[in-house]
Amino acid sequence: MRVLGIDPGSVSTGYGVVSVEGSTLRRVGGGTIRARGDTLADRLAFLSRELARAIAELAPECAALESIFSAKNARSALVLGHARGVALAACGTAGLGPAEYTPAQVKAAVTGYGRADKAQVMLMVQRLLGLAAPPPSDEADALAVAICHGMSVRVRTSVRIALALERAT
Predict the structure, then answer these.
(1) Angle in degrees, 0-180, between the axes of helices 103-111 and 118-129, rounded to the nearest 10
(2) Is 7 a catalytic residue?
(3) Helices 103-111 and 137-168: angle between axes, nearest 10 degrees
(4) Could you confirm whether 38 is annotated as catalytic?
(5) Which of 1, 35, 91, 142 could form a disulfide with 43 if both were Cys (CB 3.0 to 4.6 A apart)?
(6) What does the pLDDT profile of the chain (169 residues) look like in tens digits?
(7) Strand pairing partners for 30?
(8) % helix / strand / coil in the chain, to the nearest 5?
């Protein structure tokens, strides 16, 4: 299963695709989209085009986004909401219907601790994916979201199978 993770941001948006095959995790691709344009509309249109390009290129089967958390001020939260909306729309257009996870859920899935710092997340993403070096911060966050979703789907599938086997006996 190929999972697209997105860490939306108003200035930069991280994205990453992870292949989940059994207990094996592999980075398929990813990067950081830096906002370009003079107006908010220009920057959001650029983000939309770049996410659509990444989805077409990396061919994920499902997607997950980091959900909104508290921002420092209302304006920041509103702009972040716009970027999340663009990411949700890009996923919806591609038929991916993204799952959403809180930052604490993502950190707990990747590091075992829901209040881990960025450096810990980057290091665990590097280790889990067998990378030579930690990916850049925004991409690492997106890959962590993809890992979180991939692991969550794997666990839910295992539980469903176990329950079905139990009912069959």
Answers:
(1) 50
(2) yes
(3) 80
(4) no
(5) 35
(6) 999 999 999 899 999 999 999 889 999 999 999 999 999 999 999 999 999 999 999 999 999 999 876 667 888 888 889 999 999 999 999 999 899 999 999 999 999 999 999 999 999 999 999 999 999 999 999 999 999 999 998 767 667 777 788 888 8
(7) 16
(8) 55, 20, 25
